[in-house]
Design brief:
This protein is α+β, with helices and mostly antiparallel strands. The chain has helices at 28-43, 49-59, 62-70, 123-137, 152-160, and strands spanning 20-22, 74-79, 87-93, 106-114, 142-148, 164-173, 176-186. The protein has one domain (20-186): Aminopeptidase (3-Layer(aba) Sandwich). Pfam families: Acetyltransf_1 (PF00583).
């Protein structure tokens, strides 16, 4: 089974900035595999293997991705050519936001991943800007997320893109409670 940093398809190696687009329902199985690999690469070491695998089975199945891809409240953006994802961002509209976030129309960024071997090329920044633009287009005035407290690179990235810590949360990986930071950023109209 390849890891998140491994190639997932037969397309040519990435050159320049790949396209960013909304994932299609027909991609549910491929997206499911990519999501599972990305999660295992990022967090596979943080909990017992049985907890990590239970989390992956529950959250990243092809059936669940098919449901999420057809849910109008869920938008999954992918970066890279079809069949060879570099990363993805998933926005969920209409979810309750943390109490500390005072916003009229907040949206949750439920997932944000980029292949590890592609870090440092500006692609994550482009994906973040596309996610913010998508949220603004749907009327959002703030974006919030939770991030593992033991993920300093991710935390730095979010801070660089305007997110501030607004609280803490517990994120369960299987039966293992993990400590997360809640972070949010404002989405000014037009910018």
């Amino acid at each position: 089974m390849p890891r998140a940093g491994d190639r997932t398809g037969g397309a040519a190696p990435f050159e320049g900035l790949p396209s960013i687009r909304r994932a299609r329902t027909a991609e549910a199985a491929l997206l499911s595999r990519f999501m599972a690999h990305a999660f295992l690469d990022a967090f596979g070491h943080g909990s017992r293997q049985e907890d990590v695998l239970a989390h992956v089975r529950h959250h990243f199945s092809a059936a669940r991705q098919s449901r999420e891809l057809t849910d109008p409240a869920c938008v999954t953006l992918v970066i890279g050519p079809p069949g060879d994802y570099a990363g993805y961002a998933q926005l969920v509209f209409g979810q309750p936001a943390p109490e500390a976030l005072q916003a009229q129309a907040p949206v949750e960024m439920r997932r944000f991943y980029l292949r590890r071997d592609l870090h440092g090329r500006g692609w994550a920044a482009s994906l973040m800007e596309a996610a913010k633009a998508t949220a603004r287009e749907r009327g959002a005035d703030a974006l919030w997320l939770s991030v593992w407290q033991q993920a300093p690179r991710a935390i730095r990235f979010y801070r660089k893109h305007g997110f501030e810590t607004i609280g803490t949360a517990v994120f369960h990986v299987g039966t293992d409670p993990q400590k997360d930071w809640l972070m949010a950023c404002r989405l000014p109209a037009g910018g």
